[in-house]
Specification:
By secondary structure, the protein is mainly alpha-helical. It is built from nine helices and two strands. α3 crosses α6 and α5 runs antiparallel to α6. The relative contact order is 0.10.
């Protein structure tokens, strides 16, 4: 709502200009009155001018804010449209990682992966463009909780570091580093957790939901195993580890958001 004095000031200014232009100088009585109160009048004019300047500045700020919010809203919509492709790349990354890790289990001798074992397909590389899309989604989601995207990206970085450590330890020329079978099984669960998070976000990316989920559960991880055709009959140890963790936490990302 505009201030009521704003148009009044403008009207009075215009009328005064018209008066001076048509009738010439003001009558002496009015002139004397103006001289008597000129300091007060000057102060009122100064306050009015400041008020007009403040009003104009606030109007400009409000307009800039509307434009910025509109720009960010459009950017969010554009990034959201690209989200399904990015999520497909994440699930492919997780699945390829999963199969590469699975190939290491038969090479284990008891509970240890022998040094110098053949490792192929690790670490998998996730395209930078994919991470850029996920990062922009977080940046431009002003009114949407995208905490699951944040934790998924953080988990991808943690998982990548762990896998690189596994490859490095396996290749240790001194043979002093040990890679345990349990390490591989844990990383298999990490990869399945990344797959599960990406799968849970697809509905939001495809505009089937107005808000994305904020976390995933261990049941989502089991669902990821099944989507990758890793059945419990063939991978009992993995399912038992998940069952044990389920007794201590609701999902794989809980400790990242506590």
């Amino acid at each position: 709502m505009k201030e009521p004095w704003f148009p009044l000031v403008m009207i009075c200014t215009v009328l005064l200009g018209i008066w001076l232009g048509i009738f010439g100088p003001l009558p002496k009585g009015i002139t004397d009155w103006i001289n008597q109160w000129q300091n007060l009048i000057a102060a009122v004019v100064a306050v009015g001018a400041a008020g007009l300047a403040y009003h104009g500045a606030m109007q400009q700020l409000r307009q800039n804010d509307r434009q910025e919010r509109n720009r960010r809203s459009k950017k969010h919509a554009a990034v959201r449209a690209m989200l399904p492709l990015a999520l497909s790349q994440v699930t492919e990354y997780a699945q390829k990682s999963e199969f590469a890790l699975l190939a290491l289990l038969p090479q284990c001798r008891g509970q240890i992966l022998p040094p110098g074992s053949l490792i192929q397909g690790l670490p998998q590389i996730l395209p930078h463009e994919t991470l850029d899309v996920l990062g922009e989604l977080v940046e431009y989601s002003d009114d949407v909780d995208v905490s699951l995207v944040e934790t998924m990206v953080a988990w991808i970085q943690i998982y990548d570091s762990r896998v690189r450590g596994l490859v490095r330890d396996n290749a240790d020329p001194a043979g002093e580093a040990t890679v345990f079978r349990l390490n591989i099984e844990n990383y298999l669960i990490d990869a399945a957790s990344i797959y599960a998070a990406a799968a849970a976000l697809f509905d939001y990316g495809r505009r089937r939901g107005s808000r994305p989920p904020d976390t995933i559960t261990w049941e989502n991880v089991r669902g990821a195993f099944r989507n990758m055709r890793m059945w419990d009959e063939e991978h009992r140890d993995l399912y038992k580890i998940v069952e044990g963790r389920e007794q201590r936490s609701r999902g794989p990302f809980d400790r990242l958001v506590e």
